[in-house]
Specification:
4-stranded antiparallel β-sheet; mainly beta; 121 residues
């Protein structure tokens, strides 16, 4: 079983910062791309940032210069969020392209349960 668990969400004032963490656990052979997505009430889920296994990053235009995605050598990814705006309020989801032990035929995307980020004005 593979699981992604996010943490670090909360309530913060506009201009503040938060750091989200995502830990992957289970019978994992390898992790390819990892990323963060968010979904605000009444809106579709949207990409925030992604990072490849080689460390290449991609950001939504709305967060460039304010958010930084990173990952360590194990199974974790992080999202450092600065200069937060009320428009950043959403549930943030971790996403990872994972190959479990058992073979590449089981490779697929996994999602965490989400963590709420609320930015007050």
């Amino acid at each position: 079983q593979v699981q992604l668990v996010e943490s670090g969400g909360g309530l913060v004032q506009a201009g503040g910062s938060l750091r989200l963490s995502c830990v992957a656990s289970g019978t994992i052979f390898s992790i390819n791309d990892m990323g963060w997505y968010r979904q605000a009430p009444g809106k579709q889920r949207e990409l925030v940032a992604t990072i490849t296994s080689g460390g290449s990053t991609n950001y939504a235009d709305s967060v460039k210069g304010r958010f930084t995605i990173s990952r360590d050598n194990t199974k974790n990814t992080y999202l450092q969020m600065s200069s937060l705006e009320p428009e950043d309020t959403a549930v943030y989801y971790c996403n990872a392209d994972i190959t479990p032990w058992g073979g590449s035929r089981f490779r697929r995307e996994y999602w965490g349960q989400g963590t709420q980020v609320t930015v007050s004005s």
